[in-house]
Predict the 3D structure of the following.
Amino acid sequence: MRIHGLTLADFRSYGHLDVAFDGGPQVVVGQNAAGKTNLLEALVVLSLGRSHRARTDQDLVRWGATVGRIEASVSREPASTAIETLDVAIATPAAGLPNRKRIRVNGVGRRAETLSSTLRTVLFAPESMLLVSGAPSLRRDELDTVVAQLRPGHARSLATYARALTQRNSLLRLIREGEADAGQLPYWNGVLVDVGGGIVDRRLAVLAELSGPLGSAHDEIAPGEEALSLAYETNAPAGPGETPGDAIRRRLAETAEKELWNGQTLVGPHRDDLRFLFGGRDLAAFGSRGQQRTAILALKLAELDLLARGDGVAPLLLLDDVFSELDPERRGHLVRRIRALPQAFVTTTALEDLDPALVAESAAWRVTPGRLERLP
């Protein structure tokens, strides 16, 4: 996939930006807080309909403005050079508009989950380095981002589940305080079973599809080492003949009294996790820092392969200041993949952190607060 042009208006640190990009690697250099990550974040929003780091959509609007906008012209190279237009506008409450977010593809209104059919992305950022040993939410978000780009409707299911979870937790607390009737619980239980079961089912299916590319990518980076795999951990494991939804229903019944005591939902996909296994052992507990970084890089390369598998269209690779986190050998594997893609965006605080050959064949850009300029 390739970005031909990008326009930002009152988005994060950019008052206005209108820029055209060539194919191939795009290296963006600048100091911390200059706006490098904001640039990549705009591309993530065009792909997923949401930011990977903002708490709310309104956080994306430049301070003092009421509406922020991102527009890009995109082609699905190498399969097609036809150009499509993506447009996301986000309004703050001060704008007084009925809809806080408007999404259009080729001028026609669309839902957020349809964006990835036009632009798919794989983001490798400094926080990715915490995937093995960090909080379970990081791993859930990583998996859900891939699933959402492969299974239309997954993002909407996640939003529906989150709303139902909030309502159910509130109800559990009211029941505990004697201010609500437990007879209201079955409705929310049904939502968690139906929607939550579907979330788990899609996660498991995509994990199975990711297994082969992950093993191949790890063999590429660390030939001869033990096998790398991912294991899904759930507090509602399905028994013989059970679906994920059946398992959630059973576990909700088993934990009903404990949930009322705690005032919160204790089972469901919001509490599930992933484990990185190296030779069958938990990498978070036994792996060295180098092994963990190798596993994370292998996962990102596997995501690239899996997202391209269906239609042969490679995702847009976004690398946010991660080269300094990798040793020369791992950098070399990443550089080879970048060169094979129609386009990739790489940010850095210093060109010296990048492979000289990569810099030589890249379009180089310098970012300063609110500005992006092509370097000679």
Observations:
- Residues 185-221 form the longest helix (37 residues).
- The domain at 1-120+313-376 is CATH 3.40.50.300 (Rossmann fold).
- The radius of gyration is 22 Å.
